[in-house]
Amino acid sequence: MQKVEIYTTPICGFCHAAKRLLSQKGVAFTEIDVMRDQSRKSEMMDRAAGRHTVPQIFVGDTHVGGCDELYALDRDGKLDPLLAG
């Protein structure tokens, strides 16, 4: 299983939806709250090619994008293989 990291804020509905999908799939992930630790937001933006909205999701070295992209991968049957590595 690939390492999964998700940059979030506690008030973001899309963040909650993305975490719910990952949890339903039994995926362990590291959550990075950029509201609590502002220095992590610049890290997120560097990793996400300047994107500043949350969530920003990374599976291994792959930048998935946000919640919509995560759900699209799942709908297309591409999320599980990506998670498996």
From TrEMBL:
SUPFAM superfamilies: Thioredoxin-like. It comes from the Bacteria. GO terms for cellular component: cytoplasm. One of its GO terms (molecular function) is glutathione disulfide oxidoreductase activity. Keywords: Cytoplasm, Disulfide bond, Electron transport, Redox-active center, Transport. InterPro entries: Glutaredoxin, Glutaredoxin_subgr, GRX_bact, Thioredoxin-like_sf. The keyword Transport applies. GO terms for biological process: cell redox homeostasis; cellular response to oxidative stress. PROSITE patterns: GLUTAREDOXIN_2. Residues 4-64 form the Glutaredoxin domain. It holds the Pfam family Glutaredoxin. NCBIfam families: GRX_bact. Belongs to the glutaredoxin family. Has a glutathione-disulfide oxidoreductase activity in the presence of NADPH and glutathione reductase. Reduces low molecular weight disulfides and proteins. This is Glutaredoxin. The lineage of its organism: Bacteria, Pseudomonadati, Pseudomonadota, Alphaproteobacteria, Rhodobacterales.
